[in-house]
Amino acid sequence: KGLIFYMPEKLYHQFKTQVAKDKKAKDMSKVCRNLIEAYTEKKLNCKGETQ
């Protein structure tokens, strides 16, 4: 099972850039955790679907 996140394209590019800068973020589980934390901190409207 995994999570699918729907977000504005601009936000996606910002996150992608941030991940690219963080060499430790090669670990996808860490990337996903960081994304979830970012949504939690900013309290953005986020639809998450399990697959």
Indicate the topology:
Elements: E1 3-5, H1 9-21, H2 28-42, E2 48-50
Antiparallel strand pairs: 1-2
Organism: marine sediment metagenome
InterPro entries: Arc_rbn_hlx_hlx
Protein name: CopG family transcriptional regulator
Cα distance spanning the termini: 5 Å
Low-confidence sequence ranges: none
Mean pLDDT across all residues, rounded? 65
Please identify the structural class as seen in this structure.
mainly alpha
Radius of gyration: 11 Å
Largest sheet: 2 strands, antiparallel
Number of strands: 2
What would you call the shape?
globular
Our count of domains comes out at 1
The helix count comes to 2
Order of helical and strand elements: EHHE
Binned, the helix content reads 40-55%
> How are the strands ordered across the major sheet?
1-2
Strand content: 5-15%
What is the multimeric organization of the chains shown?
single chain
Give an overview in words.
This is CopG family transcriptional regulator. One of its GO terms (biological process) is regulation of DNA-templated transcription. It comes from marine sediment metagenome. The chain is globular. Strands 1-2 form a two-stranded antiparallel sheet. It has 51 residues and is mainly alpha-helical. Helices cover 55% and strands 12% of the residues. It has one domain. It has helices at residues 9-21, 28-42, and strands at residues 3-5, 48-50.
